[in-house]
Amino acid sequence: MTIPDYYGILEVPVTATQEDIRQAYKKQALLHHPDRLASTATQVEREEATKRFQQIADALYILGNEQRRKDYDASRQRQGAFSTQTDPHTSSTQAHHVFGNVFEDLLQPEVDRPGHTWRILGAGAGAVLGFIVGNVGGAAVGALAGKTLGQIRDHKGVSVYTAFQRLNLDQRRDILTTLLTRFLMSGSAGVMK
Q1: Cβ(72)–Cβ(117) under 8 Å?
Q2: pLDDT number for residue 183
Q3: Which of 32, 97, 143, 169 has its CA 20 to 30 A from that of 134?
């Protein structure tokens, strides 16, 4: 799993001050704003410009707030992998980005014959809730989340909460921290619209 390199997107060093970040945002926003495209620009060019502009807005949202920046830097150090190519509005990319392999410890089977019942029910319920919240994109994210939670129940034979409580404190902390960080980074796209 890679996280966006917001410093690279704004073209600032990791030592940049808050003022440097604001100035870099203004510069990048002016350079890449979709409204600056020529009237002859294709739909694909407009979509790419919109994605790039959203990345710039996401970078300001994360780096422009000291606490979010501190959390981002901590995640960045833990992950050690970056990508300047993100598409926060692609539902499958966003779902993988948010949930990825966060639940790896919980997905290890503990029952003799894990079933598929809860995985199917979870995917269906998640898709319905996701659709209510965020239309088709939300349905995809919800289905993945529901499927993952159902799969945990299938593999453990107990509720997700009980399986989570069985993990040691460090494992629980890592899951919650990673999930929160991924959620905030992917969710920042919607806040900055």
Answers
A1: no
A2: 61
A3: 32
Question: Which helix H or strand E contains 4, and what residues bound it?
Answer: strand 3-4
Which tokens hold the place of 142?
A: 């919800």
> In sequence order, which residues have a C-beta less than 8 Å from that of residue 186 and are 6 or more positions away?
88, 94, 97, 98
Helix (H, G, I), strand (E, B) or coil at 89: coil
Which range of 54-68, 90-104, 159-173 scores highest in mean pLDDT? It is 54-68
Is residue 116 exposed (0-12), middle (13-18) or buried (19+ Cβ within 10 Å)? exposed
Query: Phi-psi bin for 106: left (phi > 0), alpha (psi -120 to 50), beta?
Result: alpha
Single-letter amino acid, residue 73: D
pTM over 0.85: no
Lookup: tokens for 34: 């979709």
HSE, side-chain direction, 13 A CA sphere, residue 143: 13
Domains, the chain, ordered by start: 1-86 (1.10.287.110), 101-193 (no CATH)
pLDDT, residue 84, reads: 42
Encode pLDDT of 50-89 as tens digits. 889 999 999 999 999 999 999 888 888 877 644 444 444 4
